[in-house]
Amino acid sequence: MSATQSLGGHDHVFLGASHDRNQRRTMIVVGITALTMLAEIVAGYVYGSMALLADGFHMSTHAGALLVAALAYRFARRHARDPAFTFGTGKVGDLAAFASAVILGMIAILIAVDAAWRLASPIEINFRPAIAIAVIGLAVNLVSAALLHEGHAHDHDHAHSHEHEHEHHDHHGHGAARDHNLRAAYVHVVADAATSVLAIAALLAGQFLDWVWLDPAVGILGAVMIASWSAQLMRASGRILVDTVPDPKLAAAMRATIEQDGSHVTDLHLWRVGPGHNAAVISLVAADPATPDAYRRRLSGLAGLSHVTVEVARAQPG
């Protein structure tokens, strides 16, 4: 005997619990960053300051990455019930996060190359306006980080209820409910804030101690730090995109729950379809199998399962 779970009519909306709130926060940060960027570029042209121009164009790369994050939220919400997306649009944010991580890595490379060039061929630095620019940039990024961090702090709240499912919490410690798109936006502003702090320290040392070499040296240190964050974000979002098992403990608990009556799991696939939402396909054999819905009810006590398909076969005698 074989059977497959019958779900009836249902949607595939697997967006994070704080999806709309995170979209609003990200759009606010995009606006703040864009206004600061425009102000620095205009002021740079008006006052002939290369430092202002450089910082303005540098900020434009972060503004672009943040805009990608904001548009990803909008796209995911708009197409959440589009049947063209087999398991919804919950992973659009992970795609945006991966793209942001690549942009962050490119920024790190550009900073490192420029810093190495300045270390080999020092240039004269106008310390006072450079420090002022760095302080303004730091203030903008701290405000942006506070907005995004407050949203990040709610990522592990009650997740979206999906019809017949339970509330989803990240009990397993594997970041199953983490919104990588929000994390990418947060990393961008934190990276910019960190480089501003390092730049301020280096510029002060250059102005008062004549350690001009420290400015490009700190630039290289900042580039290494940003590259490390980029790699971590790329790895985390990339694992979701290629459907690695998001929570091995959950997979093991599923297997143990199904097999407690002598049934045998022959195949189990578990993957993430959105922040706090996992899908699973389970094949099993049993001498006297229950119905697929009965096995699904057994699994209902496990947090994080939003879409479960069960295939049942009767074991052949002998």
Structure, briefly:
With 318 residues, the chain is of the alpha+beta class.
Care to describe what's here?
The chain has 318 residues and is of the alpha+beta class. The protein has two domains: 19-241, Alpha-lytic protease prodomain-like (Up-down Bundle); 247-314, Cation efflux protein, cytoplasmic domain (Alpha-Beta Plaits, 2-Layer Sandwich), CATH 3.30.70. The protein has helices spanning 19-47, 50-78, 92-120, 127-153, 180-209, 214-241, 248-258, 292-299; strands at 2-4, 264-274, 277-286, 305-314. Strands 1-4-3-2 form a four-stranded mixed sheet. Helix 1 (19-47) runs antiparallel to helix 2 (50-78) and helix 1 packs antiparallel against helix 4 (127-153). It starts with a strand and ends with a strand. The relative contact order is 0.16.
What distinguishing features does this structure have?
318 residues; Alpha-Beta Plaits; 2 domains; 4-stranded mixed β-sheet; alpha+beta; disordered N terminus
